[in-house]
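Notes to self after the call with IL:
- keep both proteins in one doc
- input above output, always
- annotate only the second one for now

Protein 1:
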Amino acid sequence: MLKKLRFAVQVLFTILTNGYLYGFLNGKIYQGNLKYTCVPGLNCYSCPGAVASCPMGALQALLNRQGVHIPFGALGFFFLFGSLLGRFVCGWLCPFGLVQELMHKIPVFRKRKTLPFHSVLKYGKYLVLILLAGVGSLFLFDGFAKVPAFCKYLCPSGTLLGALPLMAANEALRSQAGGLFFWKAGVLLFLLLLSVKVYRPFCQYLCPLGAVYGWFNRFSLVQIHWEKESCTACGLCQRACPADLSKEEISRSPECIRCGRCVEACPQKCLHFSVKSPDTPKKASSQILHKE
C-alpha cells in the first residue's frame, strides 16, 4: 500500500509541477506569476511544462547577481523544506527521481543498490553543490555575465525536461545545438542507462539538492522511527533499503530518501513514519503513515 501511495504522489506531483500542456505543445516557457515561486525538487525553469522554479536554479540566480550577495531567499527555502521533510523531498517529490526509478524497473541487467566505492563516491554531490552550484555560480563568467554552472554544465533534469522538449518544438533551437548541448545530452544518456543498473545514481552521487536536504535528515520533522525494543534484528529492512542502510542508519543517514521500503518490509512493524524526532519517546510520537 505504501509503495502504491508513494508512486501516486510522485506522479501527481510531477503532473502538477510540470503539466503546463500549452508550453509543451508550443515550445513556450511559462512565465506567469507562479514562476516566482519554487517547488522543493529539481524542476527546471526552462521546462515548457514547468509552472514554478527549481530551488537550485533560484540559488544560482541569486549568486549570479552582480557583486557577492548572500542568497537569503534560497537559504530560507532550503531551511524550511529541509527542517520539515529532509530527503523525503527526494523520495516523494522529485520528478527526476521518479524518472530514474522508472528506468530502474526495466527488467534487464542484474540490479545494484550502489556503485563500487560508494562510501567515497557519495560525497560527489557535496562537491557539485560547493563547486558548481556555489563557487561556479559566483565566479564563472560567460562574457560579462555570471554562469549558473550546475544548470549549464550538468543538470540532467534540465536537459530532459527543458532542452529536449524545447528543441523538439523549435527548429531554430535545433539548428543552434552545439558542443554544450551534446555534452549535457551525453550526461543525461549516461545517467539514464546507469539508472537501469543502479538505483537513482544521480540522487546518490551528483544531486546538490540531495546534499542540502541530507544535512537536515537527523532533525527534520518527518522521520522514520525505529522502535528498538520491538526489533528482532532480522535484517529485512536493510535488504529492502535501496541505499543498503542498517536499521540504525535509516532516516538519520543523509543517504535515506524516506522511500518507506523498510517500513513495508519490517515484519514486527517497529519502523514507521513519524512527525517527531526518532529520539522522542514512543508515546509522544505521532504516526502519519503507519501500515497496520
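Protein 2 (the one to annotate):
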Amino acid sequence: MTLDSRNLPAGFGRLWTAQTVSSLGDGVTHAALPLLALTLTRDPMALAVVTAAGTLPWLLFGVLGGALVDRWDRRRTMWVTDAARAVLLAVPAAAAALDVLSIPLLAAVAFLLALGGLFFDTAATAYLPDLLGRDPAQLERANARLRGTQTAASGFAGPPAGSALLALGRSVPLLADAVSFALSALLVRSLPAMPRPAASARESLLRQARAGASYVFRDRLLLGLALRPAVGNIAFLAVETVLALFSRERLGIDTFGFGLLLTAEAAGGLLGAGIASFLGRRLGTGTALTCTAAIEGLAILGLASAPNAYVAGIALAVCGAGMGATMVLGPSLRQAIVPAHLMGRVASTSRMLAMCAAPFGAFLGGWLANTYDLRTPLYAAAGLLLTMTAVTATMTSNRRVEAALRNTHPEADPADQHPAKETVPR
C-alpha cells in the first residue's frame, strides 16, 4: 500500500484521539493514585509498594505479553484492554466512595492498570505500521503527533487535573480516568481491521517469546535501538532520584520552582518530537539518533555543572528535546523494518530492557549521592550517556538504516530509502 506522505489516513485520527484521551486519563491517575495512597498511610514502604506495583508487569510479562499480542488481533486487543481498564477503575472508585479503600487495593489496581498498558501499548505499536503501510515517513509523522500529544496530555494537563479532581472527592479522578478508557475503547473499536499476524498458534508461547527476543539481540541495528533507552533509563533514573534534593540544596529551588524545572523538560520534549522528522530528513535517521543521544549526554553534563536554576532549566529543556526526538525516530524506524508477525515481541522486548534497567539507575543515583556528592550522579549519568552514544553510533549508522529499509521495502525508490534525501512536501 502506497501512502501520500502529506496526509495520514483517517483511521490514524481516531487512533490519535483515542490515545490522547487515554493519556489525559493516565495523567489524572498518575497524580491522583499516590495522593490517594497518602490519604491512607504515611509509611514510605507502603507508598513504594503502590509505585513498584505499576512497574512489575513489564518486568514479569514483557516478552510473553509481546508474544500474545503477535497471536491476537491487535485492534481487538486494544479496545478490549481499555474497556477492561474502565471497568477496573470502577472498583477503587466505589471503594473510595464507601470509605473502604486500602493500600493493597491500590497496589492491585496499579498492577492491573500497568498490565493493561503493556498489552495496549504493544498492540498499538504493532498496529500502527499496518495502518500506515509501513511507510517510514508516515511513521515518523504519526509518532511525532502521538508523542507530542501524549506529553501534553499526560505531562501538562493530566496531573494538575488529577489534583483538582481529587479535591472534589476521592473517587472523582478514578471515574474520570475510567471515562477516558471507555471513550478510547469506543474509538479504537471503530478503527479498520487489519490482517491477523501470521504467527503459528501451535508453537509454544515460550518459544515464540524467545524467538522475538533473539531477533532483537541478533540484529545489530535493533540491538542498538534497544540499548539506547535501556542505558538511558539507568542514567535518567540516577538523575531523577537526586534531582529534587539537588535542586533544593545546590540550586536553592523551592517546590514551585522544581515544578517549573520539570515543565521545562516536558516543553523540550514537545519541541523534540516536533522537529524529529526534520532532523531525520536532514541528517539521516541514524546520524540524527546519534546526535540526539549526544545532546542528551551534554545536556545532563550542563545540568551537573549548573550554577543556578536558569541554567539547570535550559539544560533540562535541551535534554527533553533530545529525548523527544529520539522517542519518535527510534520507534518509527523499528516499526518500518521489523516483520509484522514479530512486531509485538520486538517492541515488548525493547520496552522490557528499558524497564528492567530503570531500578539500577535509581540505586546508582542514591549510592553515588550518599558516597560522594549530589552532583556526582549527574556527572556519572552524563558520562554513561556519552559512552553509550559512542558505542551505539556504528550500530545505528545511516548505512545500517538504509540497508535495513532496502531489505524491508525492496520495491521502493532508492531515494525514498535514504532518510537524509527524503523530502516531504509542505
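Annotation: The chain has two domains: 8-190, 204-426. Residues 136-168 form the longest helix (33 residues).
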